[in-house]
């Protein structure tokens, strides 16, 4: 396991004390010529020992692992479920939930009412426009009727013409019928 | 079997509150005024598969007992008595309200209907001609509506009754009352969630899956 290996390596100096010849602590002593008492060495060792951390303490994210959101437990929290079984806490939760729901329904109703108002206004506007259009059409019809009445009785020739128009459906002069003859 | 946790209580109440009105608090009130009065509580019972049920079969196969967690509404005294029965041997007790899904949501079952009908906020009564289509699992169309609570908003829980006041099921409104007035007779007004027909249709799985 990686954590235990790291731990061993890091603690090697500490465990051996001054057993390593290459370490600074052993080299520094004789070169300076100052005789260090045991206390000082112990202090240095203590200092070093402080620097070693286990992997757990470092809080490094573990690699090559997928931790689902719900599974990861927050640090420092007590294990297990907290049950709610007494009346008071249940009532509190119920009151909170009901207040929430009440607000939700209220806002829904207000929204629905507003939408209804808008729809009503639109309907009234559409009706008004429709009425105006109808009035304009009626007016045009009336004016056309009046114009015709003012024109007086049509002459016999005109009458024939009108009859002809009614029959053919158009004012255009009747085209001569095409004839095909063989030989 | 265990009591509900805080989050679970919250989700269960939220679901119940979407259908029930203010009288919901009577659900957990003590049944009389004496100091040692009994009261109703919620309990979770995890169902497990039957021992001979192979793992590779889907859990919704008829006859299989799933790993879902059923939520029961039960008298405290009875819940305490039920602790004498081991978890494996306990199938059901009290009224099953629904089940908690693995994602932490709560689903109401048809078995909760008596409680919901008693405390419902919005109600809809359907004509005899609409009873059969509803009990076979259909949604409710406008033509089948006898009457319903005024001022019902859309997308809210509603309990369905027959014209002689028998609860038939529950669902969610598709339109508000005002909107439904303008709707064609074939337009949907309520989406079905559960109906009493499930007692027959899902007879195999209704009680076994809790």
From TrEMBL, chain A:
The keyword Lipid metabolism does not apply. The keyword Lipoprotein does not apply. Component of the 66S pre-ribosomal particle. This is 60S ribosomal subunit assembly/export protein LOC1. It comes from the Eukaryota. It comes from Apiospora hydei. It is found in: Nucleus, Nucleolus. Belongs to the LOC1 family. Required for efficient assembly and nuclear export of the 60S ribosomal subunit. Residues 122-143 have a biased composition (Basic and acidic residues). Keywords: Coiled coil, mRNA transport, Nucleus, Ribosome biogenesis, Transport. Residues 1-32, 122-163 are annotated as: Disordered.
From TrEMBL, chain B:
Residues 122-197 form the PUA domain. Its main location: nucleus. It is found in: Nucleus, Nucleolus. The keyword Ion transport does not apply. It holds the Pfam family UPF0113. It comes from the Eukaryota. Keywords: Nucleus, Ribosome biogenesis, RNA-binding. Interacts with pre-ribosome complex. Belongs to the NIP7 family. Required for proper 27S pre-rRNA processing and 60S ribosome subunit assembly. This is 60S ribosome subunit biogenesis protein NIP7.
């Amino acid at each position: 396991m990686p954590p235990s290996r790291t731990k061993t390596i890091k603690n090697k100096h500490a465990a051996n004390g001054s057993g390593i010849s290459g370490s600074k602590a052993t080299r520094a002593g004789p070169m300076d010529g100052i005789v260090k008492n045991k206390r000082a060495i112990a202090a240095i060792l203590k200092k070093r020992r402080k620097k070693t951390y286990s992997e757990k303490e470092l809080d490094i994210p573990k690699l090559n692992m997928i931790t689902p959101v719900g599974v990861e437990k927050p640090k420092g929290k007590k294990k297990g479920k907290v049950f709610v079984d007494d009346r008071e806490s249940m009532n509190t939760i119920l009151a909170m939930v009901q207040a929430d729901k009440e607000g939700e329904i209220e806002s829904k109703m207000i929204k629905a009412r507003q939408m209804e108002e808008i729809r009503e206004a639109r309907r009234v506007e559409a009706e008004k426009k429709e009425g105006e259009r109808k009035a304009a059409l009626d007016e045009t019809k009336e004016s056309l009727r009046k114009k015709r009445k003012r024109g007086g009785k049509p002459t016999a020739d005109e009458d024939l013409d009108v009859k002809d128009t009614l029959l053919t459906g158009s004012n255009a002069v009747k085209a001569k019928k095409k004839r095909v003859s063989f030989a | 079997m265990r009591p509900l946790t805080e989050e679970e209580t919250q989700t269960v109440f939220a679901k119940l509150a979407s259908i029930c009105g203010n009288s919901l608090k009577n659900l957990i009130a003590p049944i009389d005024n004496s100091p040692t009065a009994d009261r109703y509580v919620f309990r979770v019972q995890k169902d497990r598969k039957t021992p001979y049920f192979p793992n590779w079969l889907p859990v919704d196969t008829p006859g299989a007992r799933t790993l879902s967690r059923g939520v029961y509404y039960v008298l405290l005294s009875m819940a305490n008595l039920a602790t004498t029965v081991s978890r494996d041997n306990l199938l059901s007790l009290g009224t099953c309200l629904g089940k908690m899904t693995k994602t932490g949501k709560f689903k109401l079952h048809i078995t909760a209907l008596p409680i919901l009908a008693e405390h419902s906020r919005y109600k809809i009564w359907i004509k005899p001609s609409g009873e059969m289509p509803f009990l076979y699992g259909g949604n409710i169309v406008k033509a089948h509506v006898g009457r319903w609570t005024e001022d019902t908003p859309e997308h809210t829980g509603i309990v369905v009754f027959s014209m002689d006041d028998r609860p038939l099921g529950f669902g969610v409104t598709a339109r508000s009352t005002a909107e439904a007035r303008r709707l064609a007779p074939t337009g949907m007004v309520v989406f079905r969630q559960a109906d009493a027909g499930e007692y027959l249709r899902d007879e195999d799985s209704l009680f076994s899956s809790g």
